[in-house]
Specification:
mainly alpha; about 0% strand; single chain; elongated; 6 helices
């Protein structure tokens, strides 16, 4: 359910970003008047959508990895390594959430130049993404990969290169 909501948010942010950038192009080249706020809005949408998509990538297990050596281990060792990797990713997500929270706290009181929104809203994408990364990694640890694969995936199945 949470992953579905995050997927919908990523898609909505991407659409807003594309519409905003398209409007900026139309205004600049056809009307001759550039918009002052479009780049800031597009940057905010891009930042949020990419960091949320990273969390979805962790949930769907499409992160970059090298399994050249692990493929030669017995299945029990591979399962243990999968859990260790998921735990390491959860720790990385917690660190991102913790350090991102400090960054957001430091940004209080500043506003964006064109729109005037608090920049802490932009920087909040880091701790939110970190918390989701940690949550999705812990979900993998507790539920296991088979239960996660039965749910809807954002991305196509991973293909192994032979």
């Amino acid at each position: 359910m949470l992953a579905t909501m995050v997927r919908g948010t990523v898609v909505a942010l991407a659409i807003v970003m594309l519409v905003t950038l398209s409007l900026q192009i139309v205004m600049r080249f056809f009307i001759g008047q550039a918009l002052s706020w479009s780049e800031e809005l597009a940057l905010a949408c891009f930042s949020w959508s990419m960091l949320l998509a990273i969390a979805l990538g962790v949930r769907d297990q499409i992160h970059v990895r090298m399994d050249l050596l692990t493929d030669h281990f017995p299945a029990s060792v591979q399962a243990g390594l999968e859990k260790l990797i998921a735990l390491a990713i959860a720790c990385l997500g917690l660190f991102l959430a913790w350090s991102g929270t400090s960054y957001v706290r430091d940004a209080f009181g500043t506003t964006s130049a064109a729109i005037g929104y608090p920049t802490a809203y932009l920087y909040a994408c880091a701790p939110v993404s970190g918390a989701l990364i940690a949550l999705f990694s812990l979900e993998f640890l507790l539920i296991g990969p088979a239960a996660l694969r039965s749910g809807a995936s954002t991305f196509p199945e991973k293909k192994k290169f032979q």
